[in-house]
Amino acid sequence: MYRYLFLLPLIALVAGCKVYSFSGASIDPKVKTIKLDNFENKAQFINPSLAPQLQDAVRKKVVGQTRLTQTNSDNADYEVGGYISSYGVSTSGISNQQASSSRLVATFHIVFHNHLDPTGKNVTPADFEDDVTSSIDFPANQSFSAVESQLLSSIVTNMSNDIFNRLFSNW
Fold it and tell me: Minimal CA–CA distance to 58: which of 81, 41, 85, 26?
């Protein structure tokens, strides 16, 4: 009988009001649907494929790692939108008075609406807006145009992970 006592804390944890998954997402059981608005690109320097690639990566992550159903209905429980607010390259390292590395930086401004409970008192999270930024360094002796497609893939992966975590993980 005593050998099963260690299971009590585990059972209590699993029986809590939130649903937890191995993806790290915690979503209230009342939430069933999500609407992903079109991601816009409002950065001064625009990469035309960044917003659609990021939106597709977030969509795949949400559909693949949550039980939420994606919908285009305005009656969705959660609604996620936003825009690329910055995208650009800067010098990130100097050696012998010359640039030794450059950095691609992209920022996405998330706009989240919880249509079930905008205050987040009964169904979390509450409505919010936040920025997610990702950056990747590359050698300054390489031209940005030569490495941009490789860097873009990493930026999209990093940002989609960060957006997902901001939406569904209480870190």
Answer: 81
Parse the chain into domains and list their residue ranges. Answer: 18-85+109-131+155-168
Per-residue pLDDT tens for 66-78?
999 999 999 999 9
Output phi, psi for 164, to 5 deg. -60, -45
- Please spell the DSSP secondary structure of 54-93, one letter per residue: HHHHHHHHHHHHSSPEE---TT-SEEEEEEEEEEEEEEEE
Helix (H) or strand (E) holding 106: strand 98-114
What local confidence, expressed as pLDDT, does residue 17 receive?
42
38 secondary structure, DSSP code:
P
Residues lower than pLDDT 70 in the chain: 1-24, 94, 96-99, 170-171
